[in-house]
């Protein structure tokens, strides 16, 4: 785990809202994403987190000149996306793949993109319908993997069963700043000696038993632990750090990369990387060739784009969303403009 990122603003606790009110897909910051990524020329638009294709359908509708490549690690989501993209047959291609793997595929380098969108939030479908342990009252297996068929990954249940008490405490602190991390880790190790923790409800109830809901607080006692487990199981931060340079390299000059984050841990990573790309040249004006690593990109949304009050009222999950967009200005850091 990376100790560099320890101060976290937790993503909003909307598990219960989603479970009660889910009636279909709602794409966060959809109109804003379509507006800021607006491709002028024909080319490939990559939706690296396809989900139920809300963003993808909007992009195909708004820009008839694009061809869309949609990626998702979950085959069940690809099936739902296929249905929602039926009006755009022949204009898209779907791939069962994590976004970082796609952009590191040698074949991808031969297909540069004009626009790339990554929505780092978990689909509402997973909280309500996936039955993999994303919601607190789920009595199915505590899995939390976006791709449960990946034989190289371990489930949340396996992680809880095999990780040491000290490492669990560190995981809960680093990935969610859970102030009761040691107490919860100790409880888990004690509990698993008696019987394995096999479901989200079992874990949630065990945490509530030692960390009661505070009066006047909306946050579920297990919220931070669930976030930390999901991040760890799906290697979310590792994948984000891996995809950033690869996806930017895949852009054509003038192309745009948009990323929607949901908590400060991932947002800080994106913000820092974008600032690195946009750092202006510090070389003397008399020097014809840049040697300092000057700006090769322009940040289009310096503070990030937040959801409107109207969107938040319709979809509380969007309250913690932030869209950042950067545009590629140069293929390398060579000759100065």
UniProtKB/TrEMBL annotation:
UniProt keyword S-adenosyl-L-methionine present: yes
Keyword DNA-binding included in the entry's annotation: no
An example Gene Ontology CC term for this record: cytoplasm
UniProt KW keywords: Cytoplasm, Methyltransferase, rRNA processing, S-adenosyl-L-methionine, Transferase
Residue sites binding S-adenosyl-L-methionine per the record: 53-55, 72, 99, 119, 126
GO terms classed as biological process: rRNA base methylation
Name of protein: Ribosomal RNA small subunit methyltransferase H
Organism encoding this protein: Entomospira nematocerorum
Designated gene of the protein: rsmH
């Amino acid at each position: 785990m990376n100790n560099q990122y320890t101060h976290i603003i937790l993503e909003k606790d909307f598990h219960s809202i989603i479970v009660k009110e889910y009636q279909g897909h709602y794409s966060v910051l959809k109109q804003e994403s379509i507006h800021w990524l607006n491709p002028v020329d024909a080319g490939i638009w990559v939706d690296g987190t396809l989900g139920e294709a809300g963003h993808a359908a909007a992009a195909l509708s708004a820009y008839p000149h694009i061809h869309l490549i949609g990626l998702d690690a979950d085959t069940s989501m690809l099936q739902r996306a296929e249905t929602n993209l039926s009006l755009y047959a022949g204009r898209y291609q779907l791939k069962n793949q994590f976004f970082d793997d796609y952009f590191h595929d040698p074949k991808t380098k031969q297909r540069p993109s004009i626009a790339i969108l990554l929505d780092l939030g978990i689909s509402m479908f997973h909280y309500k319908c996936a039955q993999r342990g994303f919601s607190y009252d789920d009595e199915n297996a505590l899995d939390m993997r976006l791709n449960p068929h990946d034989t190289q990954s371990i489930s949340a249940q396996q992680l809880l069963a095999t990780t040491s008490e000290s490492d669990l405490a560190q995981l809960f602190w680093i990935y969610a700043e859970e102030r009761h991390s040691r107490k919860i880790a100790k409880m888990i190790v004690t509990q698993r000696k008696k019987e394995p923790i096999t479901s989200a409800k079992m874990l949630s109830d065990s945490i509530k038993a030692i960390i009661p809901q505070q009066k006047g607080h909306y946050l579920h006692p297990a919220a931070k632990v669930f976030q930390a487990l999901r991040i760890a199981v799906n290697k979310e931060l590792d994948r984000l750090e891996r995809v950033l340079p690869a996806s930017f390299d895949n852009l054509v000059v003038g192309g745009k990369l948009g990323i929607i984050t949901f908590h400060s841990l991932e947002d800080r990573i994106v913000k820092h990387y974008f600032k690195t790309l946009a750092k202006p040249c510090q070389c003397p004006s008399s020097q014809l060739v840049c040697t300092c690593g000057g700006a090769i990109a322009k940040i289009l949304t310096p503070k990030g784009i937040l959801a409107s009050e109207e969107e938040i009222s319709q979809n509380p999950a969007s309250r913690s969303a932030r869209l950042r967009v950067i545009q590629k200005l140069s293929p390398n850091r060579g000759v100065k403009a």
